[in-house]
Amino acid sequence: MRSIIIENAQENNLKNISLQIPHYKLIVVTGVSGSGKTSLVYDVLCAEGQRLFLENFIGGRHSSSKLTHPKASRIEGLFPVISIDQNNVVRSPRSTVGTLTELYDLLRLLFARLGKSELPDLHLHRSLFSFNLPDGYCPVCKGLGVQDHIDPELLIADASKTIREGAFALTTPNNYIVYSQVTMSVLNQVCNAEGFSVDIPGKI
Ligand SMILES: [Zn+2]
Prior knowledge:
Elements: E1 3-9, E2 17-22, H1 37-57, E3 74-76, H2 97-101, H3 103-114, H4 152-155, H5 184-193
Antiparallel strand pairs: 1-2, 1-3
Bound molecules: zinc ion (ZN).
């Protein structure tokens, strides 16, 4: 089966909607307000996905009231479903689909339980699989996947000048560094600490 098949969906205001949604594609559901986008996506697709999940993993132990089928004559071809509410997303550079849905915690647990360590003394712990913790993250970017660094092409206006004459692109004619309170005399103190001054050319 290469698609999700929905037949005669009648959840909320849906009027016997039948459609096929191909697998492995990014699908966008659009339409005017009240046309049933949310009913289709959340109340049919997500509801059925969660029902299947509960049925498979919790089965008979769960009360049947939570396992009601969405109103449709047929829903097939669903993969496990995750949903992310567009309104309650806390955005930070460290959030991913995995962290927002808490799937990532489950994956870390899985790796920690099933993984085999190459080193005899290294006990596998969940934190080793976290890109948000020092044990697990990449030491270069600390798990953010990006690195800040200075581009000399943008910083240096004229390397043959002194800093006071405007070697840096970011000093202003009245001897401040742009967008800061740093004056030329402060900059000179920094230079002095490094054994030169803002009046010696060719230092940057
Ligand atoms: Zn990195």
